[in-house]
Amino acid sequence: MASNALESTLHQLDKVSDRLGLDDGLRAVLRSCKREFTTSFPVRRDDGRIQVFTGYRVQHSLARGPAKGGIRYHPQVDLDEVKALAMLMTWKCAVVNIPYGGAKGGVACDPKTLSHAELERLTRRFATEISILIGPDRDIPAPDMGTDEQVMAWIMDTYSMHQGYSVPGVVTGKPVNIGGTAGRREATGRGCLVVAQEAAHHKGLSLQGASVVVQGFGNVGAVAARLMAEAGCRVIAVSDSQGGVFSPHGLDLVALSKHKREAGTMIGFSGGDAITNSQLLELPCDILIPAAIEEQITVRNARHVRARIIVEGANGPTQAEADPILKDKGVLVVPDILANAGGVMVSYFEWVQDTQSLFWEEAEVNRRMEMAMTRAFDEVFEMGEREKMDLRSAAYMLGVRRVADAIATRGIYP
């Protein structure tokens, strides 16, 4: 799956490079990652055993500023996946026009099988291994799948211990009490709401009563579902990795969240009918938000997707080969590098606040993010209209062009 994600990312880049008329040398730079770091490191388990884990940190581009990208803990993490996600981060930062390049990191592990103490030891050791790469002016990690603000706090503290003083700007997505920003936890889901509103407007669709399906009920999906419901939508189905629930009249998300907290799963929730993830993706709905993992909408199921709008909350949830099928069906796809950029946007705000030691109220953070996301959507939509292309191609074209322009302006050293 990871190799396919990298191939899809490179294929999309090649198509856009052709459209932009980029020369072979510039294409080669854009297709390559600047740094690829792999580390194997030991961690002592609670029972005294030593286990060796493998971790990665990849910096794709530094042309527009320091590298930015999350760290994920997942059993299937490998180098190709991290390279693809780092490249996507480069385009994402450029699309929303913030001064970062792209990076990504990860450790091949299942965090659900680690105790709190084991998770801390793994994180601090991994942070030590990548400390030669990261820094507030070099490479700024953030949470991703399987990591959270506590993991970021451990990374920040470990890096700070090495420096001998506190460096809050080395990571974003931290707890507020050590330099995090208000609004960060909800930022990606809120960004999905903003672009969903813009997409609905262009489709002539009112959000009042619009039916919404959300795949993934983690930080992004759960927040997006709640905010969509607060905006007047009818959230008819949600799922997690084990399955989901469906109710055509709309789900009680408060009761569902309570059930999931207590049971650890959505299975058995009495407020809806059980549904599989594959069935969920094919439900008739106005807006589908895939907010789980990569490559969920494929050439096999794209013909059966019955959403009017897809807002990609996850990274790479749609195979490149599925895009033409969705386009022929008239589905408006808001691509991941735009749809889920609310998180990196507010991460940028957190980094700015850390470097200035001056913090904003949550309403100000949300206002700035909503303005920036709306502007980015409008720029991508206008590009699509002008070039007669879908929004994914338009977002890539905008992002790749900005990165290519930065490389060309800086020149090749020496």
Short summary:
This protein has 14 helices and twelve strands. By secondary structure, the protein is α/β, with parallel strands linked by helices.
Descriptive labels:
single chain; 414 residues; alpha/beta; Rossmann fold; 2 domains; 5-stranded mixed sheet
Your description of this structure?
- Strand 7 (234-240) and strand 8 (243-246) form a beta hairpin.
- The relative contact order is 0.13.
- The chain is of the alpha/beta class and 414 residues long.
- The model has no long low-confidence stretch (mean pLDDT 93).
- A 7-stranded mixed β-sheet has the order 9-8-7-6-10-11-12.
- Helix 1 crosses helix 14 and helix 6 crosses helix 13.
- It has helices spanning 2-20, 24-31, 79-95, 116-130, 149-163, 187-203, 219-230, 253-263, 277-281, 323-328, 336-339, 342-356, 362-387, 391-410; strands spanning 35-44, 50-59, 67-74, 101-108, 139-143, 211-215, 234-240, 243-246, 273-275, 284-290, 306-311, 332-334.
- It folds into 2 domains: 32-168, Leucine Dehydrogenase, chain A, domain 1 (Rossmann fold, 3-Layer(aba) Sandwich), CATH 3.40.50.10860; 187-339, NAD(P)-binding Rossmann-like Domain (Rossmann fold, 3-Layer(aba) Sandwich), CATH 3.40.50.
